[in-house]
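S.,

Sequence below, as promised.
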Amino acid sequence: MLVDCAFNYYGAHLVAGPLSCSFHVHLLIEKLHYTVSASQWDAHMTQSMTGFARCQADGLTWEIRSVNQRYLEPSFKIPDVFRALESSLRQRLRRRLHRGKIDCLLRYDGDDITSTTINEENLKELRVLMDAIHRVVPDASRPSTLDVVRWPGVLVQTPVDEARLFEKANGLFDETLTGLIEMRRREGHEMNQAITCLLYTSPSP
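The prediction came back faster than expected:
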């Protein structure tokens, strides 16, 4: 707990300058009769509170942002077709993060979970029918491409494999969350080094 307090105090007063930061950190430690070693800073201060990660694959895009928050406060903005995943996504996030305001955004290129294909057999039958009409009425106008695709049975919509789509969304979420955690660790390591330098080099007041 003390290490967390000292770290947050240091971060809040970073703009005051290195000497002021050193003074406040040492004062806090001395007042509570506690000695903080460099190894303890490294063990406890492993992550920054801020970070961002983005991953994209197969029409899916996850974006996860993290800002400072005393407790864990996750929020999800996802398309309705993925709403059934939200509960499990929250559980997976809580297993890996414990603090911060976490905003998770999922985008999906598809309007729904169906795919559209051309029924080639129906298209060939339509072609035969149009040729037969032109043999009888040579001056008859031919339909446009838009007219053809609107013809019943030419385009067929089939449901996408929902389980496979959800599996991809889950996997991409885990990948994006890993990227966010790695970014927070890198920033935290840089702050650890700065604090460790103060503890080693700055004399107590």
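The helical segments are 2-12, 18-31, 38-44, 86-96, 120-136, 145-150, 162-201.

Coffee later?
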